[in-house]
Specification:
Order of helices and strands: EEEHEHHEHEEEEEHEHEHEHEE
Shape: globular
CATH architecture: 4-Layer Sandwich
Structural class: alpha/beta
Helix content: 10-25%
Bound molecules: zinc ion
Number of domains: 1
Distance between the termini: 18 Å
CATH class: Alpha Beta
Strand content: 25-35%
CATH superfamily: Ribonuclease Z/Hydroxyacylglutathione hydrolase-like
């Protein structure tokens, strides 16, 4: 699992033991920045190419915010994934445009709900949220995040998108134990609640956040919670891209300087 350095945003690449690929989120700049820089084209795609990846098996959008899906149009065009996974359907115009792109490129759109278990090339992806009875569509909120646990042998990683307190309280009841935790919402204080940490009991964590981001994330309070729980924490703003190997028995981290 690699947390790609997309600045303030998330993009997590998973490569299964048999080489199947799942890209969860693509980073992206908020529209208020009015920038021509395309994180999908200029950061995520070159990284995937550097790994020898030219086709993705699946991509997922955890929730309909720019810092998670802004780079998706370029990724769809460059890597023709077979499947696009969504949690809650959102009326966000930005997402609707991506769904049109997906249709044009014959990408199969699949809505994932808690309880789904997907075999991914020798690993298992278990969906923990949104709940199967999650009602209606929204304009995209953090607490709508698609949350998944990826397991291989005795090792596992929990990816929370931008889940906040309300959603983390639900996740905490769903046996989320994992060795590696992708910290929710870039280390904001409304996530990584003590209840969630106690249920997950991670040994490693990774926070995806931008250098000197305007939101002041990750927050010291969250870093302190992680330190008190003796979690080895890596940060894309300090470490750049961080890769973790989950070999079925243990987890190791690789930081390239
Ligand atoms: Zn975010």
């Amino acid at each position: 699992m690699t947390a790609i350095d997309v600045g303030q945003g998330d993009s997590i690449l998973l490569v299964s033991p048999q080489g199947k690929t799942l890209l969860v989120d693509t980073g992206g700049l908020p529209q208020w920045m009015h920038s021509d820089f395309d994180i999908g084209e200029d950061v995520v795609s070159p990284y995937l190419w550097s790994r020898g990846i030219h086709r993705l098996d699946a991509v997922a959008i955890t929730h309909a915010h720019s810092d998670h899906m802004g780079g998706m149009a370029a990724v769809l065009a460059n890597f023709h994934p077979r499947e696009l996974w969504l949690g809650v359907e959102s009326r966000s115009p930005e997402l609707q445009k991506l769904l049109e792109d997906a249709k044009r490129l014959s990408v199969v759109v699949i809505h994932r709900k808690a309880g789904d278990n997907i075999e991914l090339g020798g690993s298992t992806v278990s969906i923990l949220a949104p709940a199967s009875n999650f009602g209606g569509s929204t304009l995209g909120r953090n607490d709508d995040s698609l949350v998944m646990k990826i397991s291989f042998g005795q090792t596992s990683a929990l990816l929370e998108g931008d889940a906040e307190r309300r959603e983390e309280q639900l996740i905490a009841r769903e046996q989320p134990q994992a060795d590696l935790l992708k910290i929710a919402h870039h280390g904001s204080t409304t996530s990584t609640i003590p209840e969630l940490l106690a249920a997950v009991r991670p040994r490693f964590a990774v926070i995806s956040s931008g250098v000197r981001n305007v939101y002041g994330r990750p927050r010291m309070e969250v870093l302190n919670r992680l330190e008190q729980s003796k979690v080895a924490t890596y940060r894309t703003d300090l470490n750049g891209a961080v890769t973790f190997y989950l070999d079925g028995q243990g987890v190791s981290a690789l930081v390239v300087h």
